[in-house]
Design a protein that fits this description.
The complex is a heterodimer of chains A (335) and B (367). In chain A, 36% of the residues lie in helices and 23% in strands. Chain A has 335 residues and is an alpha/beta fold. In chain A, a hairpin with a 6-residue loop joins strand 2 (27-38) and strand 3. In chain A, helix 4 (129-140) crosses helix 5, helix 5 crosses helix 6 and helix 6 (176-188) runs parallel beside helix 7. Chain A is globular and about 65 Å long. By secondary structure, chain B is an alpha/beta fold. Chain B has helices at residues 62-67, 97-103, 125-137, 141-154, 160-164, 173-186, 203-220, 231-234, 255-260, 265-272, 346-349, 351-354, and strands at residues 18-31, 34-47, 51-55, 77-86, 89-90, 108-111, 191-195, 223-228, 240-245, 248-254, 321-323, 329-331. In chain B, strands 6-7-8-3-9-10-12-11 form an eight-stranded mixed sheet. A four-stranded antiparallel sheet of chain B has the order 2-1-4-5, with no helix packed on it. The chains are: A alpha/beta (335), B alpha/beta (367). At the A-B interface, helix 7, helix 8, helix 9, helix 10 and helix 11 of A face helix 7, helix 8, helix 9, helix 10 and helix 12 of B.
């Protein structure tokens, strides 16, 4: 543990230290010291306060946090819906935040797609499925013939388990699960390599959830997709993600491999989140002790907190005395 | 008021334990000239001071069933047959608002799903709670205000005096849900129905609200009914669970019975599709197909077309509501003596041992 290396979390120039094992993996997306600010002057609010993480090719990276933690803002900032006010976003080593070349811009649109939370609100009620699914394609490629477009739409619909006939229908004719599939088809038609899924299943019923999760895993296997999975529900996160970053008030408090994070959560906020996950076992659930997180427990006046790599690939946000406590806890758990 | 049809009912509804008893209830809706059979013959006794959870997919009829208890059925719906017996009255025969106003609030109160839309944005929180006190407990002026502040403190809102003068938009989602609960309590109900009280909330807030409702149940001696689509949520809070599918209760049992010894294939399917029970890198169990169209008459078991364990008879005749134990019933032919033995899926059988280790939700030995 003594070899753990620390880095300041807020500095945009922070060199991301990767462990030997992770170096072998190709970094697809890299977020460095991202800041997103809304409003100005007295109403200025910083929703994302210096967030850095890497997403490796082919993995599912989870962003977990409560509402208002900034997890959605990060997703939207990557896809450039919200401008960032500090730091940078690199996609395959190329900067895609701020002003970029026209060619890069097209590449980003093609390669990074988003699936939205509420399938009831994210589809144009007055457009047919055909138009909704094809819109991105026609915007980027104006020379498509009608036949090519139709082929692409039919293929995308089949890929998500819908019938090609559905192309001529309107969104209101579909159930929630089918609508979410249309949302996925709309992202897939661009043939992206990276998909940001913002709470894709929270608005769905339990049984439909399973269908959409399975569909997403299948597509990942078939096409080697990389996902950024944003959600507040850690039970779903555990099932689908490879690594998780827990975010609170615009700061990542802990980042680790999913199983490691669940086995050995260190930051008190992570512990509170995990303890709140409902367990489908009445005996365990009725004796479960809920951990409550009190943000006032941190005393950052004397020692400033920073992101510390406490074991390879496991980062936690804290100041020197806290990190010492986390180390002790880790040793206790491993005994 | 008392319907003769039910005068000859067996003694169970008169035993002091049962507060409310639903008897062979059929509810229908008229929609675009067609008739939708939303509740297809449900019988259910609600026991005093229990916590009953009603679980099912959207469209299963959970909310419709509960809306019958406080007269909030949409105008195009009606009770076709059956009764709801409560304190010697048949609620199903109520027609006028005047009848319902005696029941609603004072006897049965409801907490709705979305705390964003169930409060009046133009009135202060304090005013809205006092309104309920005024109508249901005839409290006025300073007495009402005193009680209102007590209620706010009861639901865990700090700084009650200042908060009571604020408007709903100044409250977070979790705090708003607390206010809605306070309003329901202001009616001093005997039965509190919580319709998906935590679906719109974060996981940590969800745990807090569930605990709050549980504590209030003890304090006020409430009978609680939860409506939810997430079986995971109710493991902690429910004494009994009723699983609904297509307007019918397919399984009813104590919390332990439903989680550890489920009998209906639909309950198996619901449990297996929980992501907590999934194995990484493998497909999660997903229920195929869609719920049946309730505009059409249902033949046999409504779940049969989606049920991989369906027997031939499931497509022909409605299964009996067979008893597994005194408290446990399931509507499936699998409980018939002539049925072949079918093992529940492995994910369901593993529930008992799955989360045994430690008090920590994440510490499981499964992977």
């Amino acid at each position: 543990m003594s070899t753990a290396i620390t880095r300041p979390s807020s500095s945009a120039a922070a060199n991301v230290v990767t462990t030997v094992r992770q170096k072998e993996r190709e970094t697809l997306l890299s977020v460095r010291g991202m800041r997103v600010t809304f409003g100005a002057g007295r109403r200025r609010f910083e929703a994302v306060r210096g967030v850095s993480f890497d997403v490796y090719k082919g993995e599912t990276f989870g962003l977990a946090g409560e509402s208002g933690s900034g997890k959605t803002t990060i997703g939207r900032a990557i896809i450039r819906v919200n401008p960032i006010s500090g730091g940078e976003v690199l996609f395959r080593g190329e900067r895609i935040s701020g002003r970029v070349k026209r060619k890069t811009d097209g590449g980003v649109v093609r390669n990074i797609q988003m699936i939205f939370q509420d399938p009831m609100a994210s589809l144009n009620e007055r457009a047919k499925v055909d138009y909704i699914v094809a819109e991105g394609l026609t915007n980027l490629n104006r020379h498509l013939t009608a036949a090519q477009r139709q082929d692409a739409v039919h293929k995308a619909l089949l890929d998500v388990g819908l019938l090609p006939e559905f192309a001529s229908r309107f969104p209101h004719e579909f159930s929630g699960g089918q609508r979410q599939r249309i949302g996925i088809a709309r992202a897939l038609i661009m043939n992206p390599s990276f998909i940001i899924a913002d709470e894709p299943i929270s608005a769905l019923d339990v049984s439909i959830r399973a269908q959409v999760l399975n569909l997403m895993s299948r597509l990942q296997k078939e096409r080697g997709l990389t996902y950024l999975f944003i959600a507040h529900d850690l039970s779903v996160m555990r099932f689908i993600t490879d690594r998780i970053a827990v975010i609170r008030q615009g700061i990542i408090v802990e980042l680790a491999n999913t199983e490691r994070l669940f086995e050995n959560p260190l930051h008190p906020y992570t512990r509170a989140l995990i303890s709140a996950v409902p367990v489908p076992n009445p005996v365990v659930e009725k004796t479960k002790r809920l951990e409550v997180y009190d943000p006032n427990m941190h005393d950052y006046a004397k020692f400033k907190p920073e992101m510390v790599e406490i074991e390879p690939g496991h980062w936690v946000f804290g100041n020197a005395p806290e990190v010492e406590g986390y180390r002790k806890r880790m040793e206790r758990v491993s005994l | 008021m008392f319907n003769e049809e039910f005068a000859a009912r067996p003694a169970d509804s008169t035993t002091p334990d049962v507060v409310l008893s639903i008897v062979d209830l059929h509810v229908k809706f008229r929609l675009r000239g067609q008739v939708l059979h939303a509740i297809r013959g449900i019988s259910l006794d609600i026991v005093k001071h229990e916590t009953l959870a009603i679980v099912g997919e959207s469209g299963a009829g959970k909310s419709v069933l509960m809306k019958n208890l406080c007269g909030l059925l949409d105008p195009n719906g009606w009770v076709d047959s059956g009764g709801i017996m409560y304190e010697g009255m048949n609620l199903a025969a109520f027609k006028s608002e005047k009848d319902w106003s005696r029941i609603r609030g004072k006897h049965v109160a409801m907490v709705m799903q979305d705390p964003m839309t169930s409060l009046n944005p133009l009135k202060t929180i304090g005013w809205q709670i006092e309104e309920a006190l005024k109508y249901n407990q005839q409290l006025r002026g300073s007495a009402a205000r005193k009680r209102m502040l007590e209620l706010l403190a009861d639901v865990g809102i700090p700084d009650t005096d200042k908060r009571s003068r604020q408007y709903p938009h100044e409250f977070s989602g979790g705090m708003r849900q607390r206010v809605v609960i306070a309003i329901a309590l202001a009616c001093n109900p005997k039965i509190l129905i919580c319709d998906e009280p935590t679906t719109a909330l974060d996981v940590t807030i969800q745990a807090q609200i569930l605990k709050l409702i549980h504590d209030l149940k003890e304090k006020y001696g409430l009978t609680l009914i939860y409506i939810t689509h997430d079986l995971g949520v109710v493991a902690n809070v429910a004494d009994r669970i009723a699983v609904m599918y297509a307007g019918d209760i397919v399984e009813l049992g104590t919390c332990e019975e439903v989680f550890f010894d489920p009998r209906h294939p639909y309950t198996w399917a619901l449990l297996s599709s929980l992501p907590q029970l999934g194995t990484k890198k493998q497909d999660l169990y997903a229920i195929q197909g869609t719920p049946p169209n309730l505009f059409q008459p249902i033949r046999g078991d409504a779940f049969a077309p989606r049920n991989p364990w369906a027997l031939a008879i499931d497509f022909q005749h409605r299964p009996p509501y067979a008893a597994v134990s005194l408290t446990h019933r399931a509507r499936t032919w699998l409980l018939d003596t002539r049925a072949p033995t079918v093992e529940p899926p492995s994910a369901v059988r593993s529930i008992r041992t799955l989360f045994d280790r430690g008090a920590f939700a994440g510490d499981s030995a499964r992977r």
